[in-house]
Amino acid sequence: MKIRNATMGDVKQIHTLLNYFADKGLLLGRSYSALYDQLRDFKVCANEDDKLVGVCALHIIWDNLAEIRSLAVSEEVQGKSIGLQLVRACLEEAAEFEIDKVFTLTYQAGFFRKQGFHGVDKSDLPHKIWSDCINCPKFPDCDEEALQCSVKDILTRN
């Protein structure tokens, strides 16, 4: 398995993987247009046949703040640290951009807490993050949990 930056040739597989989990209500699906617009945000995990088995995005929000979003790992390879590796790759990229605070909105809070994220009040996050929420079928009754971390703290502890 190899973690790498997403390419144009990955968009259809990313779309399929994300929308599989979106159909289960576990994350927000992405349109092809949004994926092409934000392709540079995405890291992927590909197997030896170049089939994508995981995806995660680091979306820069504001000065010193980014969001980990669209984390999805194929069911057949869950439990093999692929999600952890994808999140870590995104955190390393955040460090390269000198971004120290990263947050996520998630239904998998336990996974992120194990990595060093801690709960925050959604109202403490900038209003700019809510632009994606308008497209969510659960808006305005969001039941995702907001978590945040210090990139330096996580990268130095692991």
Summarize the structure.
This protein is α+β, with helices and mostly antiparallel strands. The chain contains five helices and seven strands. A seven-stranded mixed beta sheet has the order 1-2-3-4-5-7-6.
Structural features, described:
- With 158 residues, this protein is an alpha+beta fold.
- It has 5 helices and 7 strands; from the N terminus they run E-H-H-E-E-E-H-E-H-E-E-H.
- Strands 1-2-3-4-5-7-6 form a 7-stranded mixed sheet.
- Helix 3 links the parallel strand 4 and strand 5 (101-106).
- The protein starts with a strand and ends with a helix.
- The model has no long low-confidence stretch (mean pLDDT 90).
Distance between the ends: 20 Å
Q: CATH first level: which class?
A: Alpha Beta
**Tally of structural domains:** 1
Helix segment tally: 5
From the spread of the alpha carbons, the general shape counts as globular
Number of strands: 7
The CATH architecture name reads 3-Layer(aba) Sandwich
User: Strand order across the biggest sheet?
Assistant: 1-2-3-4-5-7-6
**Which regions have little confidence, pLDDT < 50, spanning 5+ residues?**
none
Counting helices, strands and paired strands, the structural category is alpha+beta
CATH topology: Aminopeptidase
Largest sheet, strands/sense/barrel: 7 strands, mixed
CATH superfamily: Gcn5-related N-acetyltransferase (GNAT)
Range of helix content = 25-40%
Instruction: List the secondary-structure elements in sequence, H or E.
Output: EHHEEEHEHEEH
Percent strand: 25-35%
Average of per-residue pLDDT values: 90
